[in-house]
Amino acid sequence: MSILETISKRHSYRGKYKSTPVPREDLIKIMQAGLDAPSGCNKQTTSLIAVDDKNLLERIHGVINPPIGESAPAMICVLTQRIIAYKDRCFAIHDYSAAIENMLLAIVDLGYESCWYEGHITDTDRIGYQIAQILGVPDDYELVCILPVGVAENIPAGPNKKPFEERAWFNGFKK
């Protein structure tokens, strides 16, 4: 499919996944798409860990409450480093957001589904920190997001989007 078709087809998938393993070659392609994303002042603040070991996935899911993506056969954990890139500005959030969107598009293009889980992971209960501890992530990295990856059991229709004319204009704001 074309990149525009992939963008249009992508949506957050929160359903159950088939037990079909995700080949490492596909996980590498997905992660490479993330690493190919732009980063502020080329600081490359985003790092990634793919998890496809069943026992490790079980340990990780043991700290995620309420549970999410527990039937996915693979997960990509997104790490960031808060590095000052320009004057007093840190672009880490922009960097990992671009990486995540690239990966979500690659996931759809390869025939899988996923969902961007960040708020649930970075909330005050520190689930991201707990996952980072399980994975041996150094303290100067922050685990900010998980992406379950797998083949969907059932693909629901994507969400309804507002019409183009309500959100995009030419030559000025129109309401």
Rg, Å, rounded: 17 Å
Percent of residues in beta strands: 5-15%
Q: Taking strands numbered 1, 2, ... along the chain, how are they ordered across the largest sheet?
A: 1-2-5
How many angstroms does the end-to-end distance come to?
34 Å
Topology as a string of helices (H) and strands (E)? HHEHEEEHHHEH
What sort of overall outline do the alpha carbons produce when their principal axes are compared? Answer: globular
Mean pLDDT over all positions: 94
Describe this structure in words.
With 175 residues, this protein is α+β, with helices and mostly antiparallel strands. 35% of the residues lie in helices and 15% in strands. The strands form 2 sheets. A 3-stranded antiparallel β-sheet has the order 1-2-5, with helices on both faces. Strands 3-4 form a two-stranded antiparallel sheet. Strand 3 and strand 4 (89-90) form a beta hairpin. The radius of gyration is 17 Å and the shape is globular. The mean pLDDT is 94.
Tags for this model:
175 residues, alpha+beta, 3-stranded antiparallel beta sheet, two-stranded antiparallel ribbon, globular
Write the layout of secondary structure elements.
Elements: H1 3-9, H2 24-35, E1 46-51, H3 54-61, E2 74-80, E3 84-86, E4 89-90, H4 92-109, H5 119-122, H6 127-135, E5 142-149, H7 164-167
Antiparallel strand pairs: 1-2, 2-5, 3-4
What's this, in brief?
The chain is α+β, with helices and mostly antiparallel strands. The protein has helices spanning 3-9, 24-35, 54-61, 92-109, 119-122, 127-135, 164-167; strands at 46-51, 74-80, 84-86, 89-90, 142-149. Strands 1-2-5 form a three-stranded antiparallel β-sheet, with helices on both faces.
